[in-house]
Design a protein that fits this description.
Blueprint: E1 2-5, E2 20-23, E3 26-29, H1 47-64, E4 72-79, H2 85-93, E5 103-108, E6 118-125
Parallel strand pairs: 4-5
Antiparallel strand pairs: 1-2, 2-3, 3-6, 4-6
Helix pairs in contact: 1-2
């Protein structure tokens, strides 16, 4: 059974996609970038603040599906500069229990939506 997940606590989709789709017990989130939902502005002050906003947006989507980061089994991280990896990883790690951290890939890409520096998507299971 497929269910569209939406929350006003994360940026609204700006195209033909959903914030997340719950299929059975598995949640597939769309990639989140650092849009502050309260202001509508990008948070680009530093790579750590940008990553924190991305993770908070993902947290809101997970909560809308009645899940937490403990439910996450896989993440995909897209970054515009691999030199930012250590700082991104430092923030990212604060949201997971290292003993149960999800599988992950991190890929450097040429560009991301709105020319941000990081975008993250997740797969979670209840």
């Amino acid at each position: 059974m497929r269910k569209i997940i939406y929350t006003s606590k994360a940026p609204a989709p700006i195209g033909a996609y959903s914030q997340a789709v719950l299929n059975g017990n598995t949640l597939y989130t769309s990639g989140q970038i650092a849009i502050n939902v309260d202001t509508g502005n990008l948070v680009l002050d530093s790579i750590t603040e940008e990553t924190k906003q991305v993770m908070e947006n993902l947290k809101a989507v997970l909560e809308a599906a009645e899940m937490t980061f403990n439910n996450v089994i896989k993440t995909s991280i897209f970054i515009s500069n691999m030199h930012n990896f250590a700082q991104i990883n430092e923030v990212y790690a604060q949201y997971f229990d290292e003993a149960f951290a999800p599988a992950r890939e991190t890929v450097e890409v040429a560009n991301l939506p709105k020319f941000v520096n990081v975008e993250i998507s997740m797969i979670a299971v209840k």
